[in-house]
Design a protein that fits this description.
The chain is an alpha/beta fold and about 400 residues long. It has 13 helices and nine strands.
């Protein structure tokens, strides 16, 4: 007769409670698991993703094709216009880079054209002097004091989309270039002016002649940038507009910020005084504070009842507090505790509510016990005992009143 016995499993089928892994003979894995690593690192990953998102949002929202570059002929970045300056030089056009209105005025002549961008820092008196200078003017973007530099040209829509547009005009410089990356700001053209590259029915390029000088205004300088110069007819249009004279005086912002510039009444706002990038720094700081608040304010779970290592009897607690009162000679606090406890115990026995006044409680106690009302009042609401003997006497009297109230 063959007897089969089932092998005893050395690994428990199930275990509950926190004491199970500690049983003898059971092995507990010590290497970190995938779940443990995820729970440990998910907070760090979340913070990292938020930081990356906060850094990418400004980059994604910014558009390199709008009025964000400075159109500097010495700038070789994608936002600069060094490529255009070199192309102009190859065609015999002398590009003179100046960073102040006084230098531009000193170099202006009948054989020159002055290029002014929206980044140029000008005051109204400087704009007035530049408007009266000899030579032609090429104005890029909705520059300050456009009413002075290009009289009769008024910005209409500063949010026109910058994209490839057809000239839709008879201007020779525009028709030879063809489509170009134009937009930014559209204008209303004065009488006799030529408008090209319309956006929303309004031209983004305006040219007219005033006092024998040619004035050209374009709504955006993206077609002149290193990034866009090789696209569409941007290079041809930039050459046709900027190369009309043997010398091009290119006005750029000064290396050091100017002070005392007259911005005109009502043109300066609080937002213009804030350095660029501060708004995004504030947003990132708010996000960081929110993440820290969520992290530190997370729910810690339910309260866990813990057994005390030593059980202290109530009598010992009372005795200990009494010794403390005695050590500090706090007879007033001891008497107040005795009186409050006595009042709490006899009030329901007298059939009174917790809101009963002291006079009602004293009267009911005197009637129930037969004690003098003034004695009862002093016992329940009197002054602090003068010495330890008076405190002991007060405690005995209060105990007697409680017994009489309970027995009656």
């Amino acid at each position: 007769m063959i007897t089969q016995t089932r092998p005893v499993s050395q690994t428990p089928v199930s275990q509950t409670g926190s004491e199970a892994p500690a049983r003898a003979g059971w092995s507990v894995p010590t290497s970190p698991t995938a779940g443990g690593l995820w729970r440990r690192l998910r907070g760090i990953l979340l913070v990292g993703l938020l930081v990356v998102a906060a850094a990418l949002v400004p980059v994604l929202l910014s558009s390199p094709g709008t009025e964000g570059h400075e159109a500097d002929p010495a700038d070789a970045t994608v936002y600069g216009s060094k490529a255009l300056a070199e192309v102009l030089g190859d065609h015999g056009i002398t590009v003179e880079r100046v960073d102040s209105a006084s230098d531009a005025l000193a170099r202006s002549g009948t054989d020159s054209q002055l290029l002014i961008t929206y980044a140029s820092l000008l005051s109204r008196p400087e704009a007035t002097r530049l408007a009266a200078a000899p030579g032609d003017r090429l104005i890029v973007g909705a520059v300050p004091y456009l009413d002075v530099l290009a009289s009769g040209v008024t910005p209409k829509d500063r949010g026109a989309r910058v994209r490839s547009r057809e000239p839709s005009c008879a201007l020779r410089e525009a028709t030879r270039a063809g489509s170009a990356f134009m937009g930014g700001t559209s204008f209303s053209a004065p009488a006799g002016a030529t408008g090209c590259y319309p956006a929303g029915g309004k031209p983004t390029l305006v040219r007219y002649v005033a006092n024998g000088h040619t004035v050209t205004v374009v709504g955006d300088g993206s077609f002149m940038s290193n990034l866009r110069l090789a696209e569409d007819g941007n290079a041809a249009l930039a050459m046709n507009l900027a190369g009309t004279k043997p010398r091009l005086i290119w006005l750029v912002p000064p290396a050091e910020p100017q002070t005392g510039i007259d911005t005109g009444p009502g043109n300066e706002s609080l937002g213009s005084l804030i350095p660029p990038g501060v708004d995004w720094a504030v947003i990132q700081l708010i996000i960081a504070v929110g993440v820290v608040a969520l992290w530190r304010g997370r729910r810690l779970g339910p309260v866990v009842a813990e057994r005390l290592p030593v059980v202290v009897r109530a009598a010992e607690t009372v005795e200990g507090r009494g010794r403390l009162y005695r050590a500090r000679r706090a007879r007033d606090r001891a008497a107040l505790a005795l009186r409050a406890a006595a009042v709490d115990r006899i009030t329901p026995r007298l059939g009174l509510s917790r809101t009963a006044s002291p006079d009602e409680l004293v009267a009911a106690t005197a009637v129930r016990t037969g004690e003098d009302m003034e004695d009862v009042r002093f016992a329940l609401y009197g002054t602090a005992p003068a010495d330890d003997a008076a405190l002991v006497a007060l405690a005995g009297y209060l105990d007697a009143i409680e017994r009489q109230v309970s027995d009656s």
